[in-house]
Design goal:
Elements: H1 2-16, E1 20-26, E2 29-34, E3 39-43, E4 45-47, E5 73-76, E6 82-89, H2 92-95, E7 98-110, E8 116-122, E9 127-134, E10 142-148, E11 159-166, E12 172-184, E13 207-210, E14 223-227, H3 233-241, E15 245-251, H4 285-297, E16 302-306, H5 319-335, E17 339-343, H6 349-352, E18 358-362, H7 367-370, H8 374-378, E19 383-388, H9 393-401, E20 404-408, E21 416-418
Parallel strand pairs: 13-14, 14-15, 15-16, 16-17, 17-18, 18-19, 19-20
Antiparallel strand pairs: 1-2, 2-12, 3-6, 4-5, 5-12, 6-11, 7-10, 7-12, 8-9, 8-11, 20-21
């Protein structure tokens, strides 16, 4: 059965006439490689035929001037820069299978000091998301691969849309451009995220939490917590390029007029202060899940939603419903391969420790109160503690309980002090 499905898939590709190369990866998957068939120049100009991007024609040491017109495509900026769009057709046979990964393969040469980026159109947020910033080697051509998280947001229907943006500093030259899509062909249907595929930190994490912008990306820590709606995709990409895990924070209990998803919440479900009527959360699963999907779409590695203890402020929202809501949120995150941290909700720790990957407490005030988080540490899961200002009161508590503690300003800006300072 599996062999028949792969044969049908290959036949469908050949009938479509799309440039595709298949490479077996494992028994239940196949990788298809596709190339652009057309270049639409939006700003600037190009020289060379798009078919030159289908094969690798130059060696790393090939001088730029010796690359033939039939081997490369040159992208020339205007004084305002360059922008081209390259659509890659994907046969429907691919869309019928589970897409488990997307990878960009690229050979390029750019002027030192210039800024060239590849962007993918992200259908989950209806906007362009930076997939790669092109960084030239010290000399010669660069040949890089960029793996794209959350592939379902970029492959919808029959195409993937790529945009190449460059500044006016100098031209960009491409020798090769391909999108490799690995598809699951197992008979048991689409694969879900594997347990353990997301970030699950143990005690001893170094971290930063900044909910203002621009994000200072210079700290050498394991994890950054940033605001989902305020941070940019380029900041997320830079942090991940530097090896940081990116956790996106948002408030699951409020909707502000400035929130990009405000129109997704029915007016009757939000009061005049912007508070979501969470006792009706089951009716709002669509927009609530949309916030988690947005985090996945912009490239976050995990989420830390506020509102896990909303029942303490809303008498209509009982603790039983709160636990159901919190469990649903964790499952929704894990289905998308996202890590999730329990923020506050100390009284629910015993019921939720097996559903959440780590915990965050802001100013638990003493050892007795903070000890409520011990089940996380007992299960080898990190607990992150945060207090405000220069005082070091929380540092002793953190050391006694195994909590990874830092100090921050009230505004949660870039200022940070660890307990070592």
């Amino acid at each position: 059965m599996l062999r028949r499905r792969i044969t049908l898939l290959l036949g469908a590709i050949l009938l479509c006439g799309v440039v595709a190369i298949f490479r077996p990866v494992r028994a239940d998957s196949v990788t298809a490689t596709f190339h652009p068939e057309k270049i639409d120049v939006l700003a600037g100009s190009t020289r060379g035929d798009v078919s030159a991007l289908h094969t690798r024609d130059v060696a790393p040491s090939t001088p730029e001037g010796q690359a033939g017109a039939d081997e490369v495509v040159r992208f020339q900026p205007t004084p305002e820069g360059h922008q081209s769009r390259l659509d890659i057709a994907v046969p429907s046979a691919i869309s019928d299978l589970a897409r488990t990964s997307i990878r960009l393969d690229l050979g390029y040469l750019i002027t030192p000091g210039s800024d060239w980026q590849l962007l993918l159109f992200n259908r989950c947020i209806d906007d362009w998301t930076m997939a790669a910033r092109l960084v030239p080697p010290r000399s010669g051509w660069a040949f890089d691969q960029y793996r794209v998280a959350r592939p379902a947001c970029y492959l919808s229907g029959d195409r993937i849309s790529i945009r190449l943006d460059g500044d006016p500093t100098g031209p960009g030259v491409l020798d090769y451009l391909a999108v490799a899509i690995e598809t699951n062909t197992a008979d048991d249907g689409p694969a879900s995220a594997d347990p353990g595929a997301w970030w699950q930190p143990g005690p001893g994490v170094s971290w930063q939490w900044q909910e203002t912008t621009p994000v200072n990306t210079d700290l050498e820590v394991d994890m950054y917590g940033i605001d989902l709606f305020a941070a940019t995709s380029s900041e997320i990409h830079q942090l991940q390029t530097d090896g940081r895990v990116v956790i996106c924070s948002y408030d699951a209990t409020t909707v502000l007029p400035s929130d990009p998803d405000a129109s997704a919440f029915p007016a009757r479900s939000v009061d005049r202060k912007g508070r979501i009527d969470l006792h009706r959360w089951r009716e709002l699963q669509g927009p609530l899940r949309g916030r988690i999907e947005r985090a996945a779409a912009v490239g976050c590695d995990g989420i830390a939603p506020k509102g896990a203890d909303a029942h303490l402020r809303d008498a209509r929202f009982g603790v039983t419903e709160q636990l159901s809501f919190n469990t649903w949120t964790a499952r929704s995150a894990h289905r998308l391969g996202l890590s999730i941290g329990l923020r506050e909700a100390l009284g629910q720790v015993p019921a939720l420790v097996n559903h959440y990957d780590w915990a965050l407490s802001i100013q638990c005030s003493n050892i007795r109160e903070c000890a409520a988080l011990s089940p996380f540490i007992d299960n080898d899961k990190a607990v992150l503690g945060l207090s405000f200002g220069e005082h070091r009161d929380g540092c002793g508590t953190g050391a006694a309980l195994g909590i990874d503690w830092i100090r921050k300003n009230d505004s949660l800006d870039a200022w940070r002090r660890s307990c070592d300072i």
